[in-house]
């Protein structure tokens, strides 16, 4: 009887514990993308949980890369699908070839002035190695063979917050495979 009472008290304590503490203790594989947030390029935060129920395309970007013109294609995707629920988040990173050396003003100048980007941009973050942003550590744990190897790598998060697909840097935003994956998630 005493053991049953102790067990019931322990379960009640767990149920009353703040969810953030439970989530922090959970292994990465039990988390969804909604557990993560990025600093925003213009200040504040970009909490992925704010986009629950919407597909999210997370792209590590760089201003001085051969793939930088993909900003235009990403903007075209954003314009085409944002009213249907697609969210695109650019995550500037200097991890590959030192191709994002500037700070927020320089990043904004390239993305917003040169490519007219209006989708959310995160603050510069690491996307590989031990110092990688927690989202990128989680994604690499979920799909180890599909971790970013260069700038403009794309992760597609489904409406359920789970990692649905990864697309290499060379995959253009207009690629039919990427479009089908996005449209599948929009229709899910």
TrEMBL record:
Active site: 65
PROSITE patterns named in the record: GLUTATHIONE_PEROXID_1 (PS00460), GLUTATHIONE_PEROXID_3 (PS51355)
GO BP terms in the entry: cellular response to oxidative stress
Keyword terms, alphabetized: Oxidoreductase, Peroxidase, Signal
Cleaved signal peptide residues: 1-25
Any GO MF annotation of the entry: peroxidase activity
Family: Belongs to the glutathione peroxidase family.
Identification of the protein by name: Glutathione peroxidase
The organism of origin for this protein: Undibacter mobilis
Organism classification: Bacteria, Pseudomonadati, Pseudomonadota, Alphaproteobacteria, Hyphomicrobiales
